[in-house]
Design brief:
The protein has eleven helices and ten strands. By secondary structure, the chain is α/β, with parallel strands linked by helices. The protein is globular.
């Protein structure tokens, strides 16, 4: 295979059989094997090319986006390849490694340190407020707006959903993490239109307001949000499972013991899927979960002993180390 742009390569057919790890029939779709290192490359290139086609993004434009990390890396790479300036507005939960990757690709990273009130969206609300202020100050800035841009979910309707269906024509259950809900909405919509009925389970984090729960403290970037995503359509989701962050850590470290270093979002989705499959006793049915990224960007947090003990306590540290 030969490519001419870093955003043109996607490995869409890599699945890991997790039954030897967790004892339940679960296949994990690995989305990290592209030059941006996460599922967010699909949404990123979809939104950028859509803005170019609409004439909104043109030579001399500068992209700006709010991101906790992975989309920021994807857009940094795309901006570098296409010759745009890019400003990523993130917050203090963004991994230091992720910030350095964005900066290495030429992006300017602005880190928000003070959150708005929970009613105004917390850290996410503060990030979005800064993006709007930046756009108002200079008409060069183009906000792609992953939270409400329909091209976010469209990328997964066109690519991720069909890739899963092609590999698993007997699919019964699909587990998808909920952040902006772009991946969730695109895959869920595809499954609703597919010829086979699939039970779509959304996975959220305790402390996220996405599905109507109260806002709470969350330390692991990726899934969950402090502002209900505008593109969320609960009618095409069959069920929601909420995960506590200590359980995310346990799932990540259990996979690491078997040689799989996945990111925090993946740990959250996998814990939810394993728990659901054990409770629902689905022997003979086919289940797939989506892994957004790998764990190399989480070595200073999810896989760092000092960080775990600081934010979750020695009891959790002992549990993931045993």
């Amino acid at each position: 295979m030969t490519i001419t742009t870093p955003y043109s390569f996607f490995e869409d057919q890599l699945f890991v059989d997790l039954e030897p790890v967790f004892g339940v029939p679960l296949f994990l779709k690995c989305e990290a094997f592209n030059f941006a290192g996460s599922v967010k490359l699909k949404a990123g290139i979809s939104m950028v090319e859509g803005a170019e086609e609409a004439g909104v993004l043109k030579p001399g434009s500068a992209m700006v986006e709010s991101s906790s990390g992975n989309l920021g890396v994807a857009l940094s790479m795309i901006a570098a390849a296409k010759g745009y300036d890019f400003v990523c507005v993130t917050d203090s939960k963004c991994n230091a490694t992720t910030r350095r990757i964005m900066e290495a690709l030429g992006a300017q990273v602005h880190t928000i340190t003070h959150a708005l009130s929970d009613a105004d969206g917390g850290m996410l609300g503060a990030r979005i407020s800064y993006v709007k202020t930046l756009c108002a100050s200079d008409d060069r800035f183009v906000w792609l707006n992953q939270y409400s841009n329909p091209l976010n979910s469209e990328a997964h309707f066109r690519r991720t959903g069909p890739a899963i269906a092609t590999t698993f024509p007997e699919l019964d259950v699909l587990f998808v993490g909920a952040g902006t809900t772009g991946t969730l909405m695109g895959c869920a919509r595809y499954m609703r239109e597919w010829e086979r009925p699939v039970h779509v389970v959304a996975v959220d984090v305790v402390g996220s307001v996405t599905f109507g729960k109260e806002a709470g403290k969350r330390m692991i970037p990726g899934l969950g949000t402090a502002v209900r995503p505008p593109q969320l359509d609960e009618s095409i989701v069959d069920e929601v499972v909420w995960v506590e962050e200590p359980d995310t850590l346990r799932a990540c470290h259990e996979m690491a013991k078997h040689g799989y270093l996945f990111g925090g979002s993946t740990g959250t989705v996998v814990h939810a899927a394993v728990k659901w499959l054990k409770e629902n006793k689905v022997d003979g049915r086919t289940a797939v979960a989506i892994a957004p990224d790998l764990g190399d960007r989480y070595t200073e947090s999810v896989y760092n002993r000092e960080w775990i003990e600081k934010y979750f306590g020695k009891e959790i540290l002992d549990a993931v180390s045993s």
